UniProtKB/TrEMBL annotation:
<dbReference type="GO" id="GO:0005096">
    <property type="term" value="F:GTPase activator activity"/>
</dbReference>
<keyword id="KW-0963">Cytoplasm</keyword>
<dbReference type="InterPro" id="IPR021935">
    <property type="entry name" value="SGSM1/2_RBD"/>
</dbReference>
<dbReference type="InterPro" id="IPR035969">
    <property type="entry name" value="Rab-GAP_TBC_sf"/>
</dbReference>
<dbReference type="InterPro" id="IPR000195">
    <property type="entry name" value="Rab-GAP-TBC_dom"/>
</dbReference>
<keyword id="KW-0597">Phosphoprotein</keyword>
<protein>
    <recommendedName>
        <fullName>TBC1 domain family member 15</fullName>
    </recommendedName>
</protein>
<dbReference type="GO" id="GO:0005737">
    <property type="term" value="C:cytoplasm"/>
</dbReference>
<dbReference type="Pfam" id="PF00566">
    <property type="entry name" value="RabGAP-TBC"/>
</dbReference>
<keyword id="KW-0007">Acetylation</keyword>
<comment type="function">
    <text>Acts as a GTPase activating protein for RAB7A. Does not act on RAB4, RAB5 or RAB6.</text>
</comment>
<dbReference type="Pfam" id="PF12068">
    <property type="entry name" value="PH_RBD"/>
</dbReference>
<keyword id="KW-0343">GTPase activation</keyword>
<feature type="domain" description="Rab-GAP TBC">
    <location>
        <begin position="323"/>
        <end position="533"/>
    </location>
</feature>
<comment type="subunit">
    <text>Interacts with non-phosphorylated form of RAB8A; phosphorylation of RAB8A at 'Thr-72' disrupts this interaction. Interacts with ARMC12.</text>
</comment>
Length: 630
């Protein structure tokens, strides 16, 4: 056993097991035993809002309950005044208490009770009184799902005693990059990460691996995949703090190294290519076209409503080069996502749709009929149901279609995702899937159509969510290879900063840029990708185009991983989709013109060379013959 694990991991594991035994043996007694308050810190004020200067006094507690250990903040019941920060030096002014009704409403809005196991990190500021900077010690708790509690200010004491008690239940580590950020360490992933650095020194692990490499590898990989799904994906999708994301990425990188150590023997005999810097031709000037209109779309149909198979490539190229008019999306997306087959007549599709509607309702009834008693013995279902409910509650809530707490569209979104859990229970639900479902519902306005379009979309993207994360890793490696060819200067810089694993692009690839573009721009980007033109990995060329445009900013400012992450995150909602698509297509044609010089694996990514469709080499212009005009 590793020394680290023997000291910290095993100690906490035993304590956890003991608590679970106590819970099982004494559940009847524990149910009537009152909650135990471990610490109660008075006069801890909650800030009413980001821009507010008003603070409501209250108490911060750690409470042991039969269901777990909780951090709780409640407003003081006897508080007659609130206080206002009048300057940055910490001076305060007491103000009249609000009316009882206002006070109750404000207190209820900011009060919280959270399980310590839901805590991901927190910011801890301790102003030095003798420095003249003033202010009060404060903490802001950040949850694993990316949400955060209101800032809490300790008016009469420091945070030290509270944090000391908190460490009795969880392991904390201060960030290397940001001294004010404290990370909650997941013990399993921390133990595995620590073991990575000891692999060469620990003969026991290596000997066990040699004796039974399959079981050792599977044990390690299961921890890696659990860590990626439970921590990395939520952090990348929900946490806007680049430092927190960096901590997760560093751990993921260490776990990847462990995986590579395990696989080194099987890969030793593999073939590889030596890639030297290539001199590429200039990029051609590319033009985006107007969106495909309904009239143009209908011109590809036969009399029975099916699509002319001889013109399908032309149709898809039109979608690739211009996207679709909004009025056409409901019809066209069904075809692009495989819900409606291109060869189906209108009558055949309506007949099949009626059958698919029955299948949807049957699957929907399955999860809706699960009782609370059944849920007690159906832990996987309960976990997935909880994930769906959390994601639906925060997906695209700034979009008018999903605004409001009583919005029926949120119910439809929930129904679609829960039904998919029953449709594909092996995959179930992973955070981020709601990002793919919400635009479909926005366009379809119907649960059945949305669901079957979602099934088609998940056929394209579900590998991103599979537990081994092999496809995400493959795409990161392919992206690195493309950057090495297109922009060796940036590739060399990223390697010097130990960022060439491209994990800072994880979110881009995971949810197909859903968080980077506006809702409507995302619709345009996705339908371009669904066209399948001009190559299977056009998503990666979009990544390359964005990185290529940011090269000077990254290098001139000497960004490290944290700064790169922050910069990439800050690009969200500032990218112009047509410019990016134009640049990505220009890169494709630049590489296509150099196919005889490119390594074989690059040609394979882009579907150029011997395996390419000859028409994919046509450079588009305003007079392109593939463009069909009426």
């Amino acid at each position: 056993m590793l020394p680290y694990m023997a000291y910290r991991y095993v100690k906490n594991k035993r304590e956890k097991n003991q608590r679970e035994m106590d819970s099982d043996l004494d559940s009847m007694v524990r149910s009537i035993v009152p909650d135990k308050t471990v610490i109660c810190v008075p006069n801890v004020a909650a800030k009413l809002g980001e821009d507010s200067k008003e603070y409501i006094p209250g108490t911060l507690s750690i409470v042991e309950k039969s269901s777990g250990v909780f951090i709780e903040w409640k407003p003081s019941e006897d508080a007659e005044t609130s206080w206002v920060m009048t300057s940055d030096d910490g001076n305060t002014e007491m103000v009249h208490a609000r009316s009882p009704e206002e006070k109750q409403k404000c207190g209820a809005r900011v009060a919280f009770s959270m399980d310590v196991n839901d805590l991901s990190s927190f910011r801890n500021d301790e102003p030095k009184r003798d420095s003249g900077s003033g202010g009060f010690p404060s903490i802001r708790l950040i949850c694993r799902d990316g949400s955060s509690q209101v800032p809490l200010f300790f008016k009469n004491t420091t945070t030290a005693e509270f944090l000391d008690r908190l460490q009795g239940y969880i392991t904390l580590r201060r960030s290397h990059r940001d001294s004010h950020l404290v990370i909650v360490v997941d013990q399993k992933s921390e133990a595995l990460a620590k073991s990575v650095s000891m692999l060469d020194e620990n003969g026991d692990i290596l000997s066990r691996f040699m004796q039974n490499p399959y079981m050792t590898a599977m044990t390690g990989f299961s921890k890696i995949t659990s860590f990626v799904q439970d921590q990395v994906i939520p952090s990348v999708l929900n946490d806007t703090d680049a430092v927190t994301q960096e901590e997760k990425i560093r751990l993921m990188r260490e776990l990847r190294l462990a995986e590579e150590q395990m696989r080194v023997h099987s890969d030793a005999a593999g073939e590889f290519e030596v890639v030297t810097q290539l001199e590429l031709p200039p990029r051609p000037e590319i033009y985006r076209e107007l969106p495909v209109s309904k009239d143009l779309w209908n011109s590809f149909k036969l009399s029975n409503g099916s699509y002319d198979p001889m013109k399908l490539h032309h149709l898809k190229m039109n979608v690739f080069r211009g996207g679709l008019n909004a009025e056409l999306r409901k019809e066209a997306w069904k075809c692009l996502l495989g819900y409606r087959q291109w060869h189906e007549s209108d009558t055949d599709f309506q007949t099949r749709r009626a059958e698919l509607a029955k299948q949807y309702e049957n699957m929907k009834k399955q999860w809706m009929s699960v009782t609370e008693d059944q849920e007690k013995r159906f832990t996987k279902f309960v976990k997935r149901k909880s994930l769906v409910e959390k994601d639906v509650a925060r997906t695209d809530r700034t979009v008018p279609f999903f605004q409001g707490d009583d919005n029926v569209n949120l119910v439809h979104l929930h129904n679609v995702l829960m039904t998919y859990v029953m449709y594909n229970f092996d995959l179930g639900y992973v955070q981020g899937m709601s990002d793919f479902a919400s635009p479909l519902l926005f366009v379809m306005k119907d649960e059945v159509d949305t669901f079957w379009c979602f099934v088609g979309l998940m056929e394209l993207t579900q590998k991103n969510f599979e537990t081994d994360q092999a496809f995400i890793k493959l795409q990161m490696n392919q992206l690195r290879d493309l950057v090495m060819i297109i922009n060796p200067k940036l590739a060399n810089y990223l390697e010097s900063e130990k960022s060439d694993d491209m994990y800072f692009c994880f979110r881009w690839v995971l949810v197909w840029f859903k968080r980077e573009f506006s809702f409507l721009d995302t619709c345009k980007l996705w339908e371009v990708l669904w066209s399948g033109q001009p190559c299977p990995r056009f998503l990666l060329l979009i990544c390359v185009a964005i990185l290529d445009s940011q090269t000077n900013i990254i290098i001139d400012n000497q960004f490290g991983l944290t700064e790169i992450l922050k910069h990439i995150n800050d690009l969200s909602m500032h990218l112009k989709v047509d410019e990016i698509l134009t640049a990505a297509e220009a890169i494709f044609h630049q590489l296509s013109a150099s196919q005889n010089k490119l390594p074989a694996h690059i040609c394979q990514y882009l579907n150029i060379g011997e395996s390419a469709v000859s028409s994919s080499n046509n450079s588009p212009s305003k007079s392109d013959p593939d463009r069909v005009d009426l």
